[in-house]
Amino acid sequence: MFALLIIPLLVSGSLLVTSPHNIKLFYRLHRYDGQLLYMKVATYGVYSFIVAVVLAYATKYFIPSLTLVTWVSHLIDGSADPKENRITSWLILLSVATCGVAFIWLQICKFRMFVAAKTISSASNNAISINFAKQLIRLNELEKLLSDGSLGQLFFDSATTNRPVLISLKCRKVYVGTVNMISEPNEKQGPNLEISISPIISGYRDKDTLRVLFSNDYNDLDGVDTSIIFPLSEVSHASWFNMDIHEKVDNNREKKPETNRKKKRKYGRTTN
Description:
Layout: H1 3-18, H2 23-26, H3 35-62, H4 68-76, H5 82-123, H6 130-143, H7 151-161, E1 165-169, E2 173-182, E3 194-205, E4 212-217, E5 228-231, E6 235-240, H8 243-249, H9 260-267
Antiparallel strand pairs: 1-2, 1-6, 2-3, 3-4, 3-5
Helix pairs in contact: 1-3, 1-5, 3-5, 4-5, 5-6
Keywords: Membrane, Transmembrane, Transmembrane helix
């Protein structure tokens, strides 16, 4: 009998935990696994159940003429014992109310997102759409998940500030560009599983010296989508990039071999 209550409790908890409208919880869902995930679902299911019980007693107190339990007990008439029918009716109504609370909760989260995006859109000096404002809210929440000094934080800053980064892949391929997309977390995987960059230049690292050698320039490809997507697992290392600084420090400590012509100028002619 109590399965009528346990199953809706888990269903309502699952709705709340896995909904992308509840971004604060959804973006952190990948941190939970196994029994910890079940406990998280059950916790939010219990929250919904408590709200449903409070609403049921509030309805009974303020609207005593509303006798849904009696009506349902007469409708099901599953036992000759009226008391048992009444208990079953209460469980059915609480189960429906628990799922209903979860649904209303999600609609409130969705409405809050819309109001926040509308406020940001109205307060912005530049005319931005509500969808763009929603994306800003998601980015702000995503930033809270990233650790300072991590690759994820580096790519996030590049995407939000349009600052170029140098990315070295494990295959020795090198890209310089700005990050234009960071994969959002889901119920199984965290953020930054994949990234997309708009390349400015690309090249490779020398097999022996690992010196960066640029071979391709994308600056003249206006109107062409040259975005490159690759998994974060393929990234060897990354850093901020500035061409002027790169040219100054690129092999600036390497000793240049002196030619015979320079030696003659330096030491002059030999005398017999």
